[in-house]
Amino acid sequence: MIYYVNAQASRDGNGSKEMPFRHIDDAARVAAPGDEIIVAPGIYREYVNPRNAGTEDSRIVYRSEKPLGAVITGAEVLTGWERCEGEGNVWKALVDNGVFGAYNPYTTMVCGDWYFAPTVRHTGAVFLNDRMMYETVTLEECCAGEADPCAWKKEESTYKWFTRQEGGKTVLYANFQGKNPNEEKVEITVRRNCFLPDKTGVGYITVSGFKIDKAATTWAPPAAYQDGMIGPHWSRGWIIEDCEISNSKCCGISLGKYRDPENDMYFYTKHVKSPTQMERDAVCRGQYHGWLKEKVGGHIIRRCDVHHCEQTGIVGRMGGVFSTIEDCHIHDICNSQQLGGAETAGIKLHAAIDVTIRRNHIHHCIMGVWCDWQAQGARISQNLMHDNMKPEGTQHAQGAMFNCDVFIEVGHGPTLIDNNVLLSKTSVVMPSEGIACVHNLMLGNFGLINSGVDSVVNGQREPRYTPYHIRHRTEVAGFMTILHGDDRIYNNIFVQHYPITDTGLTPQNSDYQVVGTSPFDIFPTYEEWISNFMMDQEPNMGRLAQYHFGHLPVWVDGNAYLNGAVVCKHEKHFLRREDGGVHVELAEKGGKYCLKTNVYDFIGDFRDGIITSDILGCAFEPEQRFENPDGTEIIFDRDYFGSHRGLNALPGPFANAEDAQQALWQH
After folding, report:
1. Confidence band (pLDDT; 50, 70, 90) for 455?
2. How far apart are the C-alpha atoms of 229 and 241, rounded to whole Å?
3. Cβ neighbour number for residue 346 with a 10 Å cutoff
4. Measured between alpha carbons, how far is 236 from 593 in angstroms, rounded to an integer?
């Protein structure tokens, strides 16, 4: 059945074409498997709560009749501003708290587990002409209207707002920098979510072509309920496609965790167990709460424009397993630096089991992609990432994380990073093991090598044990600390593009400035490692213990090193050019992003073999191959564009030098 929704209808209807619903949520109350909801252009100021699930063979489809014509927003227009006496740029407005119902974003703080910034920001926000203004702690700061030294966009940060409660009303002050708010578009967020079921298990829903913006979402750490403006809320088989998703106070799309009262913000509220232990508890309790391949995950997010969210563009703990994020434009995430903590990135996923992140353009985010814990079978492929680093001269905000294109944290692999163009100052941060980097162009460093995992508390080492899983499943196979190593670095191009300004940094730092593979010198080759294990005699448990907890081997070969990038001592077949003169520039014109580079003049005829799953082998702890989610072999004979590589492989993400001249992304 087809239901119709039109905000411009003269009155509430029955969902027919002749008498459409005026609200999308009215259709959500009655939609059943196989139904389609067609939404006319207009602004829908409502929370859509899908009640019913579709099925794998009979989905429920919500479709904007005109692409991006239907806007679902958690904001309301606020008029009636009055100028504050003596403060020419500052205006005041009052809102009766009854409009907020049980959730007042102007009394609810952004806070929780893994939140490192001061707890001074509210989940609500004020918007001037679709741009989120900056909240202040005092009215005096709001009146001053000075640029925030930690903001990535200084001019935007001069637009300030402040709130207090008086007599059952929310009082809002805002510095509009000379603009008259009664002549501009001013909105405030009043709803927590835009399109998200309030119960779990509402699966097989398609959301297509909507603009979804402005919601008072909450901080979404991994051992807590994770909300976003839109998301499937612990279900299976959603498709979110061709949508523009922007201006969330915290997260845009949530593929995240259900609410578990026994494990919800436990550290923040009870304090007595470490937050890392709560992560282990969340994994095990998740199995009790139905965390199975047949019930959770398997979502598709494609061709979406996700931007201007202050925690993440896409977040997910466990609920995003077996999902695909492809052909998306993700940018301007966590740029205000008003929020800070260990859950901020363009894409931030815990337990990205068999998740594919491909063909995305990710830029101007605090981090590009952060896969934290259990990135077992995750593949990050054919992405363009750049400018995932704070601008020069911008101060580091309290609680803010470091910057990089890709961060893989405390996982056991196999995790695959291939055919990407990584142009930020730091390319890959990997306090982890079981990672393969194949056919990438990297202008930045590797970071947190043999670092960033365990803590020293009370004078003793506290290892961070993390889980690994039955192959291509969610069931836990075991827990282990990170031994480091077990990495494969094949057929990449490394360019020392950015200057080395701090020689005191080491590969154990996240922002180590030296590009190349020499940080892997500390790990053994496979031959060195296996020779310790008494393979030709009966094992001696005591004697072998030192090797059971020692570094794992690495494999490095076929890479090109330019502008003096450094080479791992184990590598046999490589190209190194110490002479300078190599340049790589990303140019944008008319929405097209292209490389301007002379890299291939320096590489010349250097080639290496085609890499396959058999060459990469198995990640050590889960004993799982670097392979497709269905268990089939990967042959790396396709490049960034999908072009064929032939019998010999040019290092880097392009099959030939000519491909490097094509548009890498077009908006």
Report:
1. confident
2. 15
3. 32
4. 35
Tokens of 469: 């899983």
- pLDDT-based confidence at residue 87 (cuts at 50, 70, 90): confident
Sorted by sequence, the CB contacts under 8 Å of residue 304 that are 6+ apart come out as 240, 241, 242, 243, 244, 245, 253, 328, 329
Q: Per-residue pLDDT for 464 more than 80?
A: yes
- Asked if 530 and 463 touch (Cβ cutoff 8 Å), the reply is no
Secondary structure of 193-208 in the HEC alphabet?
CCECCCCCCCCCEEEE
Instruction: Give, as one character, the DSSP assignment of residue 524.
Output: P
Alpha carbon separation from 298 to 163, 356, 364, 576 (Å, rounded): 41, 10, 28, 42
User: What is this structure's pTM?
Assistant: 0.97
How far is C-alpha 535 from the chain's CA centre?
A: 43
pLDDT digits (tens, 9 = 90+) for 570-629: 999 999 998 889 999 999 999 999 999 999 999 999 999 999 999 999 999 999 999 999
Domain residue limits at 633: 518-666
Residue 557: HSE in the Cβ half-sphere, 13 Å Cα cutoff = 12
CA angle 585, 489, 500 (to 5 degrees): 45
Q: What angle do CA 420, 422, 426 make, to 5 degrees?
A: 140
Domain end point (choices 440, 468, 486): 486
User: Cα angle at 158 between 313 and 153, to 5 degrees?
Assistant: 45
- Which class for 185: exposed (0-12), middle (13-18), buried (19 or more C-beta within 10 A)? exposed
Note whether residue 133 is domain-resident: no
Report if residue 459 sits inside a domain: yes
Query: What is the rounded distance in angstroms from the CA atom of residue 442 to the CA atom of residue 565?
Result: 10
Return the residue matching tokens 């809320």: 233
Which helix (DSSP H) or strand (DSSP E) does residue 301 occupy? strand 300-302
In a shared domain, residues 227 and 357: yes
Q: Domain holding 276: CATH number? A: 2.160.20.10
Specify the pLDDT at position 151: 98
Instruction: Name the percent of the chain lying above pLDDT 70.
Output: 100
For the chain, counts of helices (H) and of strands (E) = 8, 51
Average pLDDT along the chain: 96
Compute how many other C-beta atoms are within 10 angstroms of the C-beta atom of residue 593.
18
**257 and 392, same domain (yes or no):** yes
Helix (H) or strand (E) holding 543: helix 541-548
22 near 10, Cβ under 8 Å?
no
Nearest-angstrom CA–CA distance, 343 and 335: 14
Boundary of a domain, candidates 442, 462, 486: 486
Cα separation values, 515 from 453, 494, 496, 520, 604, Å: 22, 7, 5, 12, 21
Task: Give the torsion through C-alpha atoms of 115, 116, 121, 123, to 10 deg.
Answer: -10
Residue 148 lies in a domain: no
- Domains in the chain, number: 2
Give tens-digit pLDDT for 265-307.
999 999 999 999 999 999 999 999 999 999 999 999 999 999 9
Task: List Cα–Cα distances, 88 to 28, 83, 176, 180, in angstroms.
Answer: 46, 7, 9, 10
The region that residue 265 occupies, defined by phi over 0 for left and psi between -120 and 50 for alpha, beta otherwise, is left
Distances (CA, A) of 388 to 369, 403, 510, 512, 620: 10, 6, 14, 15, 31
Residue written as tokens 């990407």? 420
Question: Cβ(230)–Cβ(252) under 8 Å?
Answer: yes
Q: What mean pLDDT is predicted for residues 57-80? A: 98
Assigned domain for 616 exists: yes
